[in-house]
Design a protein that fits this description.
The protein is built from nine helices and nine strands. The chain is 42% helix and 10% strand. The strands form three sheets. A five-stranded antiparallel β-sheet has the order 8-7-6-3-9, covered by helices on one side.
Length: 342
């Protein structure tokens, strides 16, 4: 996994590090492809734990056998304590009471009688056993839930990618990106464009189930006509929300001319993603990372604050000048939140 002087990648995957430690590993992941590969390999080795979590079943009678074991240990220890107040007859009586506490019912099920036989020491041991079990399973459960949410968002972006491909096939290979100026000059205009033209079904198509927006039952992507006719604060509010949970690619400038992005199915060109971590709203996955939709239709997951694709030095959220603005060339991808103008 990692040597004694290397980053704690296990703690990183389980979200068990202090913020400063996590930020340090995030920075290294952005700079070091080898470390990203090591993290991916570790995540793959741990994936069976997540995959099998939902199918874990306790053996029949485990609770009853555990309680009998605890009771027997307590009785055995009382025999070894000098001057114990529990004489032989008391011990026998206690063992009999403990045995009678377990009554077997039809169908092989066992139940615990609440009447007699348990002391505070018994209850303390039983609670301790339960707490240890929870402590062992909770990180796996948390990781499994987080993975499911990432997968749900990934599916939404994959559907968005199919819609963008269909759009480009009917618009001379161009993607629906922000206009250079006017009311449509915002990255999120992609969403109302696709929904108006029925390339996407409805507003929920651009809502990540793991984002804050998922709990907003009133969210609706505006129509292009509503966007064009809005003014003042209303326009600002519409532009800020219209992209849903995702960020979208801006166009680029070449020879001083603003141009739209052409769909060339590039494997290293980002066209949409979960909201950038520096966005004004919270990130979709609590800062753990984000999904990124590539022009060839694939969706990849960038861990933490990483902003570069594997094998690329291009920051997908800034242009080559380090600005949140239109790209500086046809291959300079810049994905930004909904209200960003080129």
């Amino acid at each position: 996994m990692t040597d004694s002087h290397g980053p704690d990648l296990v703690g990183y995957l389980l979200d068990a590090l202090e913020p400063a430690e996590r930020d340090h590993i995030d920075a290294r992941l952005c700079r070091e492809p080898a470390l990203r590969a090591e993290l991916d390999a570790l995540r793959h080795r741990l994936s069976p734990l997540n995959d099998n979590l939902g199918r874990i079943e306790s053996p029949p009678g485990l609770a009853a056998r555990t309680c009998r074991f605890v009771e027997q240990r307590i009785q055995d220890e009382s025999l070894l304590v000098p001057g114990s107040l529990m004489d032989a007859s008391s011990r026998a009586s206690s063992r009999g009471a403990a045995r009678s506490a377990f009554k077997f019912q039809g169908g092989g099920r066992e139940s615990l009688s609440p009447s007699r036989g348990w002391r505070w020491s018994d209850a303390l041991v039983a609670v301790s056993v339960c707490l240890v079990g929870v402590a062992l399973l909770f990180p796996l459960l948390h990781s499994n839930i987080a993975s499911a949410r990432v997968a749900a968002c990934s599916n939404k972006l994959r559907e968005l990618g199919l819609a963008l491909t269909d759009y480009s096939e009917h618009h001379s290979g161009l993607l629906p990106v922000a206009a250079e100026k006017g009311n449509l000059a915002a990255a999120g205009v992609c969403a109302p464009t696709l929904i108006d033209a029925r390339y996407l079904d409805d507003s929920q198509a651009v809502v990540c189930p793991a984002s804050e927006l998922a709990s907003d039952g009133e969210f609706r992507v505006p129509t292009v006509n509503e966007l064009e006719n809005a003014h003042g604060q209303q326009l600002l509010d519409i532009r800020r929300k219209m992209g849903g949970s995702f960020g979208y690619v801006l166009g680029y400038r070449q020879d001083g001319v603003y141009r739209f992005v052409r769909d060339r199915r590039r494997p290293q060109f980002a066209i949409a993603s979960d909201l950038p971590l520096n966005a004004s709203r919270a990130a979709n996955h609590g800062g753990a990372g984000r999904n990124v939709l590539l022009e060839d239709g694939r969706v990849v997951y960038l861990v933490g604050n990483c902003c570069r694709l594997s094998g690329s030095d291009d920051n997908i959220f800034l242009n080559d000048l380090g600005l949140v603005a239109a790209g500086c060339s046809a291959d300079d991808a810049v994905v930004s939140e909904s209200e960003t103008a080129p």
